[in-house]
Amino acid sequence: MEKTELSRDGRLAAVLMGTTIEIWDTAKEKEPVLGALSILDPQMRDRATTAFAFSPDGKSLAVQVVTKGEVNTLTFWDLTTMRQIGKVAADLGYPANGGAVVFQPDGRSVITAPMFGRVAFPSGEVITKGAPSLEVDSISDDGTTLYTHPRGFRPYIRLRDARTLQPVGQDLSTGPVYPPLSAPERATAVSPDGRLFATVHESQPGYQIKVWDSRTRQQIGVPLTGPTGAVGEFVVIGFTPDGSAVTGVDEYGRFFTYTLAPARLVRDLCATSGPLTEQEWKTHIPDVPYRKTC
Known about the structure:
mainly beta
């Protein structure tokens, strides 16, 4: 496997295998491959970069292929028939930092970085042209904001308007992240509503996780303390679906959850410790009248 992307519901996986993309049913242990899409001439395999993404409903795949000295090609595929349903190609140059494909949440267009830009789906009409500097990693759930996470040790996060593809405000300075070398964008995560960012940073010993407010560009609270002992690479970091907690798994298989939302924190504390008795309240909070805590 050279690269893998999951559909939004996790039911399908698109797996790059040389010059084809195989579509797998993740629920099947035996014969999971549903079909294969031929996306690249075998002679161009060593001179190409490939990026792809599922449509929000999981029924289509958008694939961008850029070959050195050749052309940029964007194709759309119907995964119910495994047939190509759209194509646009142009000689736009070779991206130094690789490419990316992100579907808009409404499924009507895709953002293809760096050169094509915003393209209507499935007609292939270019709505907003891209640029060599365009880098994209994810999009907010409402489809208004694009996010570019730090690659390598670049110490910032850049936000872009999803319609104009232009930067929005100043870059958010995070300090150098500590990513796995194989997938540097894994050192960051964005909450489902796009309001919060989390970044992983090396600390001694272990890690720190910083949480940021995307509107104020300010760090929220103090860094969360990561694992101690042997410093291994984080495999993945992300937010829970409701955005109330950050989760992470490191290369040793250690799983971590950090609660962020006050309401969720209260629920977690009550579930763990139960309500304070009147005597416990008098012992720990003697200057405040007793009230029920859970």
